[in-house]
Amino acid sequence: MPRFRRFPYAACLVAALCLAAAGCGKSKPMMEGLVTLDGVPIEKGTIMLIPSTGKGQSGGGGIIAGRYRITASPVPVKVVINASRKDGKMPDPLNPGSGVMIDRYVEYVPDRYNEKTTLELTITEGLNKHDFALEGGTLGEAKQ
Question: What was the pLDDT predicted at 39?
Fold first, then answer.
């Protein structure tokens, strides 16, 4: 086979080996679990991990039907959990005076789990399983 015709095959082989090697690197730790508020799974919300020492990357993701699964840095972290629900209507702030009403959403997870979080833990290599049983929520009403 002429030399110039072998080049595409060699290039494809090199590209395939590079892609395979990229997938063999060390994977980031994972964290998964269940989030409940007063014993009831949080229907829809977010969970964020913020490094306590300033080293490592923040991470986060969604909570659906109480369950979450996110990647994390293997460092001590503060955990921030948020969830909101529709609580009526309000005037559209982007169109004042238009009479347009939009849904109003309010946070119902207590501040000690988000704005003033007291949740801390250390992420380790591999899979970390951690459930959060939050208390003192306002399941039927908005947090004031």
Answer: 95
For the segment 100-131, what is each residue's pLDDT rounded down to a tens digit? 999 999 999 999 999 999 999 999 999 999 99
Half-sphere exposure in the Cβ direction for 136 (13 Å, CA): 5
Residue 141 lies in a domain: no
Give tens-digit pLDDT for 39-49.
Answer: 999 999 999 99
Q: Region of 97 please: left (phi>0), alpha (psi -120 to 50) or beta.
A: left
Q: Give the Å distances, CA to CA, from 33 to 25, 51, 131, 135.
A: 25, 19, 5, 17
For residue 46, the domain's CATH number is 2.60.40.10
- What's the CA gap between 28 and 70, in Å, rounded? 10
- For the chain, the domain total comes to 1
Q: Is residue 6 part of a domain?
A: no
